[in-house]
Design brief:
The protein is α/β, with parallel strands linked by helices. About 45% of the residues lie in helices and about 25% in strands. It has 9 helices and 9 strands.
């Protein structure tokens, strides 16, 4: 199933044309690495997909009801919040649902069966989404990214820039959107935390697109590579090493053809 369709994408900043009539499709469950030479528009492409940049031309259509999550490592956070409260905000909708459910159960005590039935439906959703394991999930992600050692009760205002970036990434992972849009997620991560993130993403059933200069990381987590080259976006199936081999062969073929044309 297609989650995102892009056609006719054209984007320029002054005389610098990044995309010209480019096309792209993201399918359900795809783990895509976005690669290309510096300045070709990798981060710009992610920002276009996250609606932060409106392209000069083109058609971008997400499948209805798809949720996306963009990694903004420099997003503003309430400095008075503790890390734990900030991470719990990833589940704000479920906490509101629990509050409403408890109200309905209280009202059902007056003999209102419709409230009881609705409360029961809310309870089923909370169970289905592991609401009562939220603290466990938070601790697992915090441990994996090296945040638990800092102390979940520490306020965001007491953290370094790198620690804040990790907390933002942790919240995004906990939110579990249908599509993750990740721009250099391994920044500020130590080797052991990159390994944990790699394993997490590999086992993720949801789709994601990731920009990274860490090619070992891309090799581990991606099953597709989208190469931004000559103002177009071309998708290659397979790992990052598979992509390099295929592109090298294409370049070699093109070289032979050029020789024949002379």
């Amino acid at each position: 199933m297609s989650l995102l369709e892009i056609t006719g994408l054209t984007q320029a900043f002054g005389d610098n044309v990044l995309f010209r009539d480019a096309e792209f499709t993201l399918n359900k469950g795809e783990h895509i690495g976005i690669v290309g030479q510096n300045g070709t528009g990798k981060s710009t492409f992610i920002k276009i997909c996250s609606d932060q940049i409106t392209p000069d031309k083109g058609y971008l259509a997400w499948h209805p009801k798809i949720t996306t999550g963009y990694l903004d490592q420099y997003a503003q956070i309430d400095n008075t919040q503790s890390m734990q409260d900030f991470l719990k905000s990833a589940y704000s909708e479920l906490y509101r649902l629990e509050e409403r459910m408890n109200q309905l159960y209280q009202q059902a005590g007056d003999g209102d069966m419709s409230n009881l039935m609705l409360a029961s439906q809310y309870q089923e959703r909370l169970d289905r989404e592991d609401f009562y394991l939220i603290d466990t999930h938070i601790e697992q992600v915090a441990e994996g990214l090296g945040l638990k050692a800092i102390g979940l009760e520490r306020s965001v205002g007491q953290m370094s820039g790198g620690q804040r970036a990790k907390v933002i990434l942790a919240k995004l992972l906990l939110e579990r959107p249908d599509v993750l849009l990740l721009d250099e997620p391994t920044n500020f991560l130590d080797k052991e935390h990159i390994i944990w993130l790699s394993e997490y993403l590999v086992n993720l059933p949801e789709a994601f697109m990731v920009v990274s200069h860490d090619y070992n990381f891309l090799e581990k987590v991606t099953t597709r590579i989208c190469d931004i080259d000559n103002k177009k976006i071309k998708k290659y199936y397979g790992s990052f090493s598979d992509f390099k081999q295929k592109k090298a062969l294409l370049r070699a073929d093109a070289g032979h053809q050029n020789i024949k044309w002379r």
